[in-house]
Amino acid sequence: MSILIKNVLLNEEETDIYIEGNLIEKIEKNINYKADNFIDGKNKAIIPSFVNSHTHAAMTLLRGYADDMQVKEWLEKKIWPLEAKLSEEDIYWGAKFACLEMIKSGTTLFNDMYWHFHGTAKAVEEMGIRAIISSVIIDFFDEKKLKEQIEINKRLFEEAKQYSKRITFALGPHSIYSNSEEALRWAKKFADENKLLIHIHLSESKNEVEECIKKYKMRPAEFLESIKFLGPNVIAAHSIWLDEKEIKILRKNDVKIAYNPTSNMKLSSGILPYEKLKSAGLTLTLGTDGCASNNNLDMLEEMKFASLLQKINTGNPTSALAKDIFNMATINGAEALRINCGKIEERRLADFLLIDLKNIYLNPQSNLISNLVYSANSECIDSTICDGKILMQNRKVKGEEDIVKKINEIYKKLI
Predict the structure, then answer these.
(1) Does domain 2-48+349-400 have CATH number 2.30.40.10?
(2) Overall pTM surpassing 0.70 (yes/no)
(3) Partner residues linked to 50 by β-bridges
(4) CB 392 within 8 A of CB 384
(5) pLDDT tens for residues 19-68?
(6) Where are the domains of the chain?
(7) Spelled out in words, what is the top-level CATH class assigned to the domain 50-336?
């Protein structure tokens, strides 16, 4: 399959773009190749689609279920008990709904951690986007539970090979407060042996840090370094309550950071030390977290909050520039997750968005990136393309009404 886009705006100039299979093959003016699909790019701009570096996709099922609570109480009394009821079929529909929301809001690659791996994988496969999927590892310091988790993840690692290249298996040890040292050591060893990414929550709350100091006489990043857990394959979500020594530890180990401003604000978890992490040279990416703590998967909204939160926190309007936040949501995330997307370039994967330049939120057409970060909403996205396939055009996604209907039936059954 091939796509030819004519007269689309790229880097403030009109050009043509030719996609062959799942790659961007040619970017130049006046391309006259024959193509299976033709798109008139007039009054549209092309940008890379977004990368959500930390979420729990199927938590779309829990949107609005347990709001305005303390994080510890929220997890232990509401979220974990309800999650225990979720079947693979529930996860499948929750993840399918999440994929629909992501397609509608411009995300084509997400880094997920949740239960029932195959439920999410099947949904992603059908919806046509990409995902790094980890089955959450939690042993609660129970030796028997750890053995079960190890066997499950070894099995899933093999079973994941049945899916397309759009789906990548990863390991998801939830956190240091829900896993034993043995679980974390095993995850690191297995990941390194099999060249896998590791997805973990780190220093999300002040209480997590205090409990770690009490238990291990070290702060979280120090503890993880002491057991040789850290490395360039680790995606550390949140990373809020870090001191100077921990930041140096994370930089030394080339850990990738996933910033989740909306969730952090909603749960009053704290504020990512953006300027310190950026100055240290760490790779910063952007995530939404799950819909139970956000409550959406909209990366355009996330970019705006990501920038404004840092500006008010530092008292500096030049903090978290629009172009830097945009890069966090695109190329930084792609590189952290080791996927060849995130830029509109020849020989990159054909994962991109067509933006409606006639939309009122993008006018006057002064600075596209600034308008996207500070002004736009998902209604500005006309088309979403992933792996060279058109998933949304004219804001229409095939079968979306059926997915929404099903998700409400499942919610009524659960609650």
Answers:
(1) yes
(2) yes
(3) 107
(4) yes
(5) 999 999 999 999 999 999 999 999 999 999 999 999 999 999 999 999 99
(6) 2-48+349-400, 50-336
(7) alpha beta
